[in-house]
């Protein structure tokens, strides 16, 4: 099983994403069962945010984790840029209440807003000092943002960066991913199998992906996930509301792709040869 180390905690390299969950009350029980299926299969990380469903998804996660040992979970949430200055603690407290816990393991600055970066990380650090978060990080940061952050007095305390990354969206490999590897800043890959769009269908229907999947007696989704975590210190957080699919997602951690298979996937979805704009959903 592949693992990632974040803030000195070792976690499985595939976690549970929750974006777009909680939209339909009719399937709440199914979504809760999906999250639990992931945890029961060996996942520990659950990624959510105050923005998701305006707090509804954090509430959903809170229901799903009832009865689980909190020490065996790794909860990630995110704060909106406008909620950093002065009100961050109130918004964090609201998130903690919805999640039913007194701390989150990793609290991310959801995307960069207009406030000076030093003020933002100072507030995040304050929450860590108070014990309401175990670590802080960022999301949707590109190479220039990360280098600026690193140069701040406490910037090197950043525990992770979460960006869009999958086989069909490899722009961060040109400079950002290598920089984070060199500086030991883990990458959290959101939308690691794409969305329900043409890109996702393009990946799952690709002949090379299907060839590799057949060799492993796996699904196309599992191969795409195995690819997403084949580099060190990359954590993927796929989302699904289907318990069976969630179990399959977690099982992808046990798939090791050969050099020949990685090369075959590179042919279908080449690595970037120049700096590209950061992909953001």
Automatic annotation (TrEMBL):
Superkingdom per UniProt: Bacteria
Alphabetized Pfam families for the sequence: Aldo_ket_red
Q: One MF term in GO for this entry?
A: oxidoreductase activity
NADP-dependent oxidoreductase domain residues are 13-266
Task: Identify the catalytic residues.
Answer: 52
Site described as Lowers pKa of active site Tyr, positions? 78
Where is substrate bound in this sequence? 110
Write down what this protein is called.
NADP-dependent oxidoreductase domain-containing protein
Species for this entry: Secundilactobacillus paracollinoides
